[in-house]
């Protein structure tokens, strides 16, 4: 893709969703797949050729989760709620969110987070995360960890053995 | 500020705005200050201690501009329109935007951009930019350039002499 093929602007909810629903290992999907099926991510930053950070327009249907609860070692994350009322889970418990609210997840804090749509209405949010190399991801609730290698997250068991 | 002082979440439009309206040199403010006065930035990412990228909730009153038209050498930028209908100016001309639209400005493209509120209603948008070191900023319409040094943009004339 050359620069000239990037659009000047776009209607976010008309950007094609990511084809692959999840990058998690199959054993993890076997456990949580149903709650990840209701998650749809439209990669807005990639559309414009951005490489330093990603921006997703993410839809969570009722019952869906944004991710397994996780914390990044080197990459910051940020969310902004556009529609609906998800619940944010962190180490300290649950926080109800609503449109116009935002949250940031500082790299290296160790505090793991995820959003859960516990309502009957779709949730729409923007998710931003940078792509700092050498990132590690911890998942306190699962036998799972990830390393950011060659611009892709590679998953292993907590003891380092592959899935 | 220690990590424990960061909030879990926040209502974006209640985050205090940046005290200093603009970082531009006084000579530039003398030329464009009136159109920058109507710009208000709430630093959402900083509130959570994020360091790899910034997220601003930016309000543009009628007549206000988001910035002088500029292009970054190393830092990506992204905007998402929450409210109102700004006009995006790039090297190729003007593009009308509306709520739910987004645009990305890829580092190194050389294509300079800014938003202008040419309507009678306030514009609200999210602005995201990373903080890659060694960034240079070009301003094709002004005798101005900037370098990102020690996490701050330092401005000079195009021949490198200070303001």
UniProtKB/TrEMBL annotation, chains A, B:
The keyword Transmembrane does not apply. InterPro entries: Cupin_2, GPI/OXD, RmlC-like_jellyroll, RmlC_Cupin_sf. Keywords: Metal-binding. CDD domains: cupin_SPO2919-like. The keyword Metal-binding applies. Pfam families: Cupin_2 (PF07883). Residues 57-128 form the Cupin type-2 domain. This is Cupin domain-containing protein. It comes from Methylomonas rapida.
